[in-house]
């Protein structure tokens, strides 16, 4: 008991440094702001830090996700919690340092309160993107029918929904072109956010705005994944405020709306029992997203790190090495084999869990630096671009697209989404050129 008490005191004492980090963040955008940096910090606190606090204090011992570690929990709980804490402190410290060097606090603030402006070619480009999105959307609906969303609406069993979810996510290449779907998924965010930005400043195109938001919602919900849709809604709110030159703040009303949507999604896809929904949400938010850090610390401390072998085929071919399954899938098969039968296939978590699995202590030390640098540079570049509907859309998209921060370190080394994003950017530049030529010709 003395050892446990000392571990908790040490963890809480070190956690106080997070307050200092948030003070710096607040200097950039204000207290309780919903901007890029603050949103990522809140996400870390809710989905990682609070979970680690619950686990190290023993309040999560009865959780389904924690029970497989009960045999040798104390060392794993303490070591894993320190990794979670270091991941947050390291990432945001480097993030803020890079942002200060490449952009500066005052320029960042100025960009947040600057109003969005649009040119005629912006609207032409957006209209063409909307048409392309519609075509890809219909292709997706046909290819994935019946989708997990459809099965949820017709009251299919949770097992059937989970199994179909695997078919339209993990095994998507068996039924559709994955690049077309990936481009469509990215465009669903960008087009809908850009129209929301336009509508926020000009009150125009209400029908196209509504349709693009509807398409994006169906696109995201069709996989049966609940978190991405909730993040999409938050991104829409952030986009509208950002376009108007306002800084949205966290409020009781916003928290209530978020919880309502979360309950609604679980009601549709998982269960109609209130007590079960509450328990599942608690586990999903506070435990499931951080437990992989502890699983990885436990499993790969004994097995040894796996290096680049779990990365994309690009790396395995480059180094002529044998590919192995990602840590998230390995951990699922070892600790939760029964979930595999119910449609689960991986246990994703905070990026440092995969960094530990891949490269051991070195990976755990360096990974927050890499994540902080990449995101600091990304945000600095983004904030130097003219504030247009498209810029607002990408700002909102990258703000809520913190999924890799919460799920994968491999994605910071290489991911096919990089190529998809580049393709969409090239497409936007090409359509912009057409729009400008059209305006000059018929002006």
From TrEMBL:
Keywords: Membrane, Transmembrane, Transmembrane helix. The chain crosses the membrane at residues 6-25, 32-56, 76-103, 124-142, 179-198, 252-270, 355-382, 394-412, 418-439. It comes from the Bacteria. This is Wzy.
């Amino acid at each position: 008991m003395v050892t446990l008490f000392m571990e908790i005191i040490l963890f809480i004492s070190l956690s106080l440094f997070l307050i200092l980090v948030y003070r710096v963040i607040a200097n950039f955008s204000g207290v309780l702001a919903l901007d890029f940096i603050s949103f990522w910090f809140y996400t870390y606190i809710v989905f990682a830090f609070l979970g680690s606090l619950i686990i190290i204090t023993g309040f999560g011992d009865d959780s389904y996700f924690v029970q497989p570690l009960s045999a040798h929990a104390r060392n794993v709980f303490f070591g894993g919690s320190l990794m979670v804490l270091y991941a947050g402190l390291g990432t945001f410290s480097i993030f803020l340092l890079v942002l200060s060097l490449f952009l500066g606090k005052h320029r960042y603030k100025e960009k947040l309160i600057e109003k969005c402006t649009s040119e005629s070619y912006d609207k032409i480009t957006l209209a063409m993107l909307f048409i392309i999105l519609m075509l890809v959307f219909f292709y997706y609906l046909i290819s994935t029918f019946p989708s997990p969303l459809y099965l949820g609406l017709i009251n299919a069993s949770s097992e059937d929904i989970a199994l179909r979810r695997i078919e339209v996510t993990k095994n998507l290449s068996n039924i559709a072109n994955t690049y077309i779907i990936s481009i469509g998924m990215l465009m669903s965010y960008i087009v809908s956010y850009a129209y929301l930005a336009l509508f926020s400043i000009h009150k125009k195109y209400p029908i196209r705005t509504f349709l693009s938001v509807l398409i994006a919602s169906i696109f995201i919900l069709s996989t049966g994944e609940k978190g991405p849709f909730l993040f999409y809604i938050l991104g829409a709110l952030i986009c509208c405020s950002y376009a108007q030159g306002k800084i949205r703040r966290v409020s009781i009303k916003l928290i209530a709306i978020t919880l309502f949507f979360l309950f609604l999604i679980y009601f549709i896809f998982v269960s109609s029992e209130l007590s079960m929904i509450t328990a599942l949400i608690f586990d999903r938010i506070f435990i499931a997203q951080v437990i992989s850090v502890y699983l990885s610390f436990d499993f790969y401390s004994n097995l040894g790190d796996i290096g680049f072998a779990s990365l994309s085929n690009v790396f395995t071919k480059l180094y002529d090495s044998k590919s192995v399954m990602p840590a998230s899938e390995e951990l699922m098969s070892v600790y939760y084999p029964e979930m595999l039968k119910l449609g689960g296939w991986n246990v994703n978590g905070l990026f440092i869990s995969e960094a530990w699995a891949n490269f051991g202590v070195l990976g755990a030390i360096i990974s927050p630096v890499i994540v902080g640098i990449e995101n600091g540079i990304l945000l600095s570049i983004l904030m130097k671009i003219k504030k247009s509907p498209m810029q607002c859309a990408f700002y909102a998209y990258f703000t809520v697209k913190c999924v890799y921060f919460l799920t994968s370190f491999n994605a910071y080394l290489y991911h096919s989404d990089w190529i998809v994003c580049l393709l969409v950017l090239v497409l936007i530049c090409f359509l912009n050129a057409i729009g400008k030529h059209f305006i000059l010709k018929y002006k």
